[in-house]
Prior knowledge:
21% strand, Immunoglobulin-like, alpha+beta, 2 domains
Amino acid sequence: MTTTDRDVMRRALRATPDCLPLERLAEELTAAERAHIAVCARCKAELDLWQELERATPAADEGAAVRWIVAELDRRSRSASAAPPQRLLSWLPRATRSWAAAFAALAVVATVGYFAWDREPSLNPVTNTDQTYRSARVRVLAPLGDVPSPPAVLEWVAPLGAVSYDVEVSEVDGTSLWRARSSTPRIEIAPSVVSQLKPGKTVLWQVRARDVSDTVIAESGAQRFRVEIPSRSPKS
């Protein structure tokens, strides 16, 4: 505990002109006195201690200890040429429980006051500054769904801020067939890939848009298309 902390505790437990004398604690209190005790840490601690000692049951070996304490206080008081601590001696013989209870009551009051005054600063939740928040989605144009013939071009709508696009064509099981990059919102499919687009075969494709810093700012997600199977002409 620092010097500042000790000074704060001393001020909180220092007697004021409004504090009650100890002998008043055994009597019926007025409304004004009860209101003062409710806001005064010192008087509240003394009242709690008084009530605890009043309720206590004497231990078998406490009588001798109390008598020694009274005698010692009286001796020290006389040696200092001061009047005996009458306020203390008036209630000390009634102390019937271990003195630890008294010190514990005072410690509780002091501790509560300290933490109320010196509260730990709250911690703000940790945020990940490296997260990428994508506010746009690439809207694809073609091909989509069933198409009459193998497509030669992939087309989409350019999202705001996009300067380049990563394009991928793959099998339905995720096996990549072709990857490429484009600077415009369209790209011609490689002839070697077009030749694999057989009738009835479903193919996936997707686009990722990137900005000037090469950061992905939008994605299309997997899109499907399938080359239709030619219908047979009815027999004549």
